[in-house]
Amino acid sequence: MTRSSKLLVYGMGAVFALILIQKAFIMYTDFLWYQSLGQASVFVLILRTRAFLGVVMGALFLAFLYLNLRFARRPLPADLTLIGKRLLPAEEREQIEQYADRGLLIFTLTGAVMAALVASGRWREWLLLFHGGAFGETDALFGVDVGFYVFRLGFLNYLVQSVFYAVAITLVVTVLVHIYQESIRLVGNTLHAIPRARTQVLSLLGLALLVKAAAYWLARYNLLYSTRGQEFSGASYADVHGRLPILYALVALALVAGIVMFISTRLRSFNLPIGALVAVLLVSLLGGWMYPALVQQFVVRPDQLRLETPFIKHNITATLQAYGLDAIKPQQHTVRNTLTPDLLAANRETLENIRLWDHRPLETTFQQTQALRSYYRFADVDVDRYTVNGRERQVMLAARELDHSGIVRPTWVSQYLLYTHGYGLCMAPVNEIVGDGLPNYWIKDFPPESSVGLEIKRPQLYYYTSRHPRLIEHITSYEHQFAPEQPSAAPSAEPGPETPGVPGAPAGPQQPAPQDARRQAPAPVDVSYAVVNTKELEFDFPQGDDSAPSSTGAQAGNATTRYAGKGDVQLSSFFRRFCFFVRFRHLPLLLTPSLTAESRILFNRALPERLVALAPVMGYDPDPYLVISKGELKWINDAYTATNMYPYSARTAWFGANYVRNSVKVVTDAYEGLPEFYVMPPLPGQKPDPVVACWRKVFPTLFRDFAQMDPELQTHIRYPQLLFRVQVEVYSKYHMKDPQTFFQKEDMWAIPPEVYANSQREVEPYYANMSLPTEPDAHQEFLLMLPFTLAGRADKNMVAWMAGRCDAPNYGELVVYQFPKALLVPGPMQVESMISQDAEISKLITLWGQRQSRIIRGNLLVIPISSALLYVEPFYLEAPNSPLPQLKLVVMMYGDRIVNAPTLNHALKRMFGQDASTVVATPVAGEGAPPPPAVPPPSGVGTVKQLLEQAIELDRQAQQALAQGDLAGYQARQRQQQELIQKALGQLP
Which of 4, 420, 736, 954 allows an S-S link to 530, with CB 3.0 to 4.6 Å? Predict the structure, then answer.
């Protein structure tokens, strides 16, 4: 080896060693992080399992390949007479021989490392294999318990496939070595091989065929995931009567061919083994494709419905079970628009919780009115319910998170030591407004002030949501993602590219870009960690004049704080500081004098990535929501167990899985950052989830019973929108339990569109306080609901609606109400069209458009009240140059009548008369006060200041008249305003 070659090898070795050392330091910081959360056993078990699989599979591959290569490299017998032309000249062979053994060793080691890496990524399937139990349900074709498919089949498929690839690679490389060694030669048209070469090659080929026979045997079970059936999943008639017999034949043929290979090692001719191999290949290629295709074309197609009926039934039954929809019993909802004052009073809680504020415009309003500084941002607005003045009220709330991109002069100290946390939240009831259409804040400002007695003792937010623009390029809607990407600083025990908790499932689909350009995020800023308890006081919240930054990056006149929690890792030694310097590659971590032995480094702070890092065996909802509990701020995250190995069940694009359960609720303290995993009891009509039971066996320290959750937090548990959306999509097709109806799609449902802003979009699931139509005397409850229309006629009549119950003891129960087919119930788009065609509303829209204001049409809510339906849609107005949406109009439809008013109370009064004016117990803030007196027309000439003040007052009155639908009053005040402005201009010099 030349000097330059040696230097290259040594350099590559040094780089590889440095990478390994860096990985070791990162692994140690991962261990410290798990240990700080009390879950070191989770880290150790995952690491130990990965190491075991990697070492065992890598060592077996290394030994198998290397021993075969060494056998093939043995010198030829001295008495061997070579016939024909040599493969290589002696000079070239001598040069190759210098590096041949070394090259084969490097190839073998590289292959072993790759096999080890692939094997280590299968740690979930390995743990499921040994800890998974039975489902208590059997598949319809083989009668095998579903637990075999979910817990064992995935790893068995991988194992057989890996062994086959190992044998196939060894066979190919061995043949090449024998050809190089000239122990296998082609002389004319005849293949010659010395006995040991023939024995080795045929033995490897026989072993490959035996392994292939095992693969064909397992392939029988994979038929249960077939997608060849028309409009249904699972094995079809052609699979069972065409492919399955061929698989049985291939199993037998491969076994026979493998035995033939071993027998042929004693023969001198290759004719018999070549014939056996050709037979297997022909049956596999032609029989595996052609025969099932012939069965499908000439047997199934002429009588498809009758032949496929049993298999369609299997698919319907399995899919409903896999998605927890089998317990639904649809009920009739006959709409009768016979609401009376007594019925309205009995449904007071429903009416006073009709949500007028949509989360998109409200997020913008929060940002404009309550962010207060450029370094704060509201990442998302959530819906929840709180008991206020003895009544349950629906509220919208959002956390005020820290946005480092808004810091004027960022430095390492300001970014990682001073600006460490967000602060407080905003909360507003769903239907109250103040002033010119702004939300009525129940919690706002610094420090948080509550007008309804909700105390917040610890408003600091050290842990936040990953939807924040500092961590993602775009704020996107939650529906199009299941498993968020792993953070760059995630622990080494993290899963690979598969969906968490879903063996072999692909990652969730990518999210689309937002429709609203205003919601586009600034460039992401690195906030992968924060260091607290340093010599620097942390910025807490702005106070007074903070326009003058200090030399350290803190701002004068601001309130400061010092972290008093025990979140994440304490930097108690220089060695730990060095380890985190290696992890984050920030030199100030080593050099800054601000750190002490009491300092703590907080990382993996974003949710749900923090949960993925801690427990990568589950999938997590990307939309955690904030809860106030005993004065502290908590994040609640829905966690899912999922798999794509449930037999006969249909897969969905949302999860890439065909079995989903919301089996775990995760509560994370926004100050301490400690996640607590609570296993939910079985939902009504469902058995306990075997997948979460398996993971509880594997990680006993990670999970707790739901009964251990704080009772106050239990009142804030809600049915997740993401899971509900998936179930709605599945049920829209699989509610058709009759195979003929299912096959012909006679009654397939769809999620209807609505008009939002100025474009159509799919109706989102929405929360509502109401009593179910079949339980009119029951207590009002918190529900998640969505209407259905017929597929292909999504813009037409409603046919049903579905709700998920959120309150105990009925939490998780899904109910479906169908409308009689002879009854025409307006769908959302029909109502949208009727609203657009209403003469009074059309004039208002025209007037607003003339002022170049942006009109935002909010979500259309369909609210069942007793046997009636009430449609409510809010309208927001936004100035073109200042995005501050204001709630200006409430449109209500009942029966065939449409009314509009500036508030919900006024709309109820216009719709149902004076008797409805006292139905809503808590009046809308600002309502009830008499309107300000109109400014009289100017009778004389005043000062310019007085004239302009009067013009401003007239403009305010004109907008109020417009919001109330008083067009005449609006136009009169506009004329008076113009006169005043002209007189003011005439006074100017």
Answer: 420
